[in-house]
Write a structure and sequence with these properties.
heterodimer, A: Thiol Ester Dehydrase, Chain A, five-stranded antiparallel sheet, 5 strands, B: mainly beta
């Protein structure tokens, strides 16, 4: 299910909805699986009263992980050679996220992609790039 | 810097894939995975982050016999976050504390992790820089680079994390 270089053009896009109405429980699952138990992700009392945020918020790495699902669905399993992001805004429970990959180059058996994830208000929460091997 | 063993296990990969909402059978169904190009179960692209589970001094996990966890019980405890462990920045991006956030993360895949791999990581500090933020005052960024090598000493994944400490919580809106 890998991509073929001959069928790719600069500007091609692939989009997926990553999550609808992000649940607090999913954030808890990510804390447990990743081992990042920072209470700002799961502990409403700490986060509102001590850390000073309106509510718990998702790990940036949860957004990167969910966005990675869109990438591997597009380029195929085991095909990524590089994946990097900046976390540009926080993700809160209740958010709905959509991610898009856009082809920026195809050469030497590698596709280069711009990656962007936005929330339900159109605010970009993650911005990055990726490279993957293509046939 | 810090050296530690990160055993890559199938059940951990399955739980991690579930937590990011990825139901791809390549992450849990060995029979299916054997019929794919990968030839077996592999880990999702951001799985290196879960190596924090195997860091004995990971600052973002309550200590079993320790006190002072900074999360709340019945009410806020007032405890301070433990300082991030020496090698912890590559995974946590320096976000090891109440005022720290993860700003950037990049992975370079030399190959993809598989169950049965026993990885050894080593972390070195990268660049640090400062910036004045519009919504959170002065920002101090620090980068760390973690290399994960397999049981044969071959490089598997390079992880570059950037953590940021903010002067105050990020303004919303």
């Amino acid at each position: 299910m890998a991509l073929r270089a001959t069928e790719l053009s600069v500007g091609d896009t692939h989009s997926e909805r990553l999550v609808e109405d992000l649940k607090r429980t999913q954030i808890v699952m990510y804390a447990g699986a990743s081992g990042d138990y920072n209470p700002v992700h799961t502990d409403e009392v700490f986060t509102t009263e001590v850390a000073g945020y309106p509510s718990v918020f998702a790990h940036g790495m949860l957004t990167m992980g969910m966005t990675g699902k869109m990438l591997t669905n597009y380029v195929g399993d085991g095909r990524l050679t590089e994946y990097g992001v900046r976390f540009t805004n926080q993700v809160f429970p209740g958010d709905t996220l959509d991610a898009t990959a856009t082809v920026t180059a195809v050469q030497g058996g590698i596709v280069e992609l711009d990656v962007s994830t936005i929330n339900q208000n159109g605010v970009e929460v993650l911005k990055g790039s990726a490279k993957a091997r293509v046939d | 810097m810090a050296q530690e063993k990160f055993p890559v296990e199938a059940s951990h990969i399955m739980m991690f894939a579930r937590s990011i909402g990825d139901g791809n059978p390549i992450y849990y169904d060995d029979e299916y995975a054997q019929g794919t190009e990968a030839g077996g179960i592999i880990a999702p692209p951001t799985f290196a982050q879960a190596s924090a589970q195997f860091d004995p001094n990971h600052g973002l996990r309550p200590k079993i016999d320790g006190d002072g966890w900074f999360g709340s019980g019945g009410s806020p405890t007032g405890a301070k976050p433990r300082a991030p462990s020496a090698g912890g920045g590559g995974r946590s991006g320096g976000g090891g504390g109440g005022g720290g956030l993860h700003a950037e993360q990049r992975f370079i895949y030399h190959r993809h992790m598989r169950p049965g791999d026993v990885l050894t990581s080593s972390t070195r500090p990268g660049n640090t820089w400062e910036k004045q933020g519009r919504r959170s005052g002065k920002l101090v960024f620090s980068e760390s680079v973690t290399e994960y090598r397999d049981q044969d000493g071959e490089l598997v994944v390079t992880a570059i994390g950037v953590g940021v400490r903010t002067e105050r919580p990020v303004d919303q809106g």
